[in-house]
Amino acid sequence: MAQDDDFHVPVLVDEVVEFLADSPGQGEIMDATVGGGGHARAILQRIAGSRILAVDRDPEALARAGKALEPWSGRVRFLQARFDEAARGAGIFGPSLRGALLDLGVSSRQIDEDRRGFAFRSGEAPLDMRMGDETEGGPTAADILNEWDEEELARIFREYGEEPRARRLAAEVVKRRASQRLEKAQDLLDAMSVVHQRPLSAKEKARVFQALRIQVNDELAALETALPRLRKALLPDGVLVVIAYHSLEDRIVKHTLREWSQDCVCPPDLPVCACRGEALGRLLTRKVIRPTDEELQRNPRARSARLRAWRKAA
Ligand SMILES: C[S@@+](CC[C@H](N)C(=O)[O-])C[C@H]1O[C@@H](n2cnc3c(N)ncnc32)[C@H](O)[C@@H]1O
Known about the structure:
This protein is α/β, with parallel strands linked by helices. The chain has two domains: 13-109 and 219-312, Vaccinia Virus protein VP39 (Rossmann fold), CATH 3.40.50; 133-216, Orthogonal Bundle (DNA polymerase, domain 1). 42% of the residues lie in helices and 13% in strands. It contains 13 helices and seven strands. It has helices at residues 13-21, 38-46, 59-68, 86-89, 108-112, 141-147, 150-160, 166-179, 185-196, 202-216, 219-233, 247-260, 293-298, and strands at 28-31, 52-56, 76-80, 97-103, 234-244, 281-283, 306-312. It has a seven-stranded mixed beta sheet, sandwiched between helices. The model has no long low-confidence stretch (mean pLDDT 94).
């Protein structure tokens, strides 16, 4: 059986399995970001009789998960799709899932493979950053840097990367691309160095690269669309587990799950309740769950993980 460790070490595995185990006995569990199949394998091993709908937009991840989950092949079906399209793609049009898992972001394998261009470790890496393949048709990081308006670039650097010199960086990119397209990680790093006029920390570089990745993969919009679709696809008492890795996505998850867990969501000055008047379910994590020190020692890449879980009303 393929080991997941060289591909991706799954995060908060015991917690994920515990929440999903306490869900209705029938129906599949959608692992909407199956990656190397680490969480899926733990679910199949530890939740008796469980069945998995394994989804990823990255065909290489799906191939890897296929190998890792081979011993349970009779209990798994695979789907290459964005998670916001997954229910429809799998032919799910009403409540049928006992659980759903979103383990957001990129896998270690995606980060470690220079040709995917997610990291700045190799200046030669192409500015690609697409998680899916060409069939999705979206822009690469290079397309965005070379073709989008200066204003839009500044917004991406500021909103998604918290880059304090977002405007200046956007202007520098636009200036450089007039003479030569930015194609490699080093081209972006050079633009950043000119703007900051000092050596940049790995964190500062990572934030700008992450900002582009969020835009390339339309990550926040996909999450906002996926959450209500997954809720609708859950059976009564079904459980949704989400692991986020940066504050922008965690904020969306936190607010959405809170809103679903309130009886009344009318504005406070409305005299009579005019909304649904009943919570759609309840939060299972009053406080966000983070990896223990012990887990972080084993897997430092888990350090930014934040898990929230929610149960649909009966
Ligand atoms: C952190 S990894 C998941 C790792 C997995 N839980 C495991 O145990 O190996 C995130 C995965 O989600 C996939 N992904 C990210 N955004 C996606 C989206 N919008 N739709 C489908 N898959 C997505 C990535 O391709 C990547 O394989």
